[in-house]
Amino acid sequence: MKRILIVKVTSLGDIVETLPVVADLRRAFPSATIDWAADAAFADIIRWNPGVDRVLSAPLRKFKKARNWNDLKEIGASIGELRAEKYDVILDIHGVYKSAIIAFIARGRRRYGYQNKDLGELGAAFAYNARFGPRPLTDAWRGMRVSVSDALGYRLEDTPDFNIRLPAPTRELNIPRDARIAMLFHATSADVKKWPKDHWGEVGRWLAARGYSIALPWGTEREQGEAQAIAGLVPGALVLPKLSVVECAHWIQASELVVGTDTGLVHLAHALQRRTVMLFAATSREHFGVNDPGRSVSIGDEGAPPDVPQVLAAIESVTIPQSTESGATIR
């Protein structure tokens, strides 16, 4: 196996959770060239992984919103770049129409995709001349890894390796180095995923009473207003300035704890090995959650958001040392 193309186009959380596939492929095929095709909005995150040789990106999401001629020209140029190499195997682990088009355009001997019942969009099926096996009975993230390992015939390591190397920030972030930072990711891409402001306030006060410095990130003006409202309920809480994704990643890396809704940046916290509590209200915890006993936990579920006591218990489960039967402690 000399050259491999991964196709995973969006979005932030999915991109982050796909990174362990790169380490899996590197262990199995150490001399292979591994490229990745994605939306330009998420290309930098893939570049944080030194196991990826080349990131092929196009402003697909941006063009869909603005229909800008320059974006269309960039998409055209990216097609030429995509076809510049011939791949031994193309792995579409996204399974929707746009990822299938990329897989079909790329030059490759074998183009793998999911079986029809496992595709996000059935129309994607046209692109493949090989299929992954039936979707395994596990979460989406491990399922991707299992699908690829089974298809290419290598043994899967149990522990996912995200292999993230953050670039240095381009400005001073003024992160307090002597504080126990707890970041509360209250903002979401959809209102149905939100958790009530008063709940965030109660959790923030509980954490502050235990010595944490509360940091509230945001991305839009509306989210800034929500962060300010929560800060009004938590004396001493800091509403952060607007941050780029890499700047937010540095804040996450400096934090002792991250609590947040089912969003990409909370997945990033899990990947950066922070103590993480992920809250679910509108999507499947079993399918999309994070879980690393003693460090990361997901609570709530689709149509059943957690209450405050459940969140506090989850925080304690990832922050308080747990005793073993022999009397030793594990964290």
From TrEMBL:
GO terms (BP aspect): lipopolysaccharide core region biosynthetic process
Subcellular location: Cell inner membrane
CC per GO annotation: cytosol; plasma membrane
Enzyme Commission no: 2.4.99.23
Membrane association type: Peripheral membrane protein
SUPFAM superfamilies on file: UDP-Glycosyltransferase/glycogen phosphorylase
CDD domains on file: GT9_LPS_heptosyltransferase
InterPro entries documented for this protein: Glyco_trans_9, LipoPS_heptosylTferase-I, LPS_LOS_Heptosyltrfase
Principal location class: membrane
Keyword ATP-binding among record annotations: no
UniProt keywords, alphabetically: Cell inner membrane, Cell membrane, Glycosyltransferase, Lipopolysaccharide biosynthesis, Membrane, Transferase
Catalytic activity: an alpha-Kdo-(2->4)-alpha-Kdo-(2->6)-lipid A + ADP-L-glycero-beta-D-manno-heptose = an L-alpha-D-Hep-(1->5)-[alpha-Kdo-(2->4)]-alpha-Kdo-(2->6)-lipid A + ADP + H(+)
Molecular function in Gene Ontology: ADP-heptose-lipopolysaccharide heptosyltransferase activity
Pathway where this protein functions: Bacterial outer membrane biogenesis; LPS core biosynthesis
Enzyme class (EC, first level): transferase
Family: Belongs to the glycosyltransferase 9 family.
Protein name: Lipopolysaccharide heptosyltransferase 1
Organism: Caballeronia temeraria
High-level lineage: Bacteria, Pseudomonadati, Pseudomonadota, Betaproteobacteria, Burkholderiales
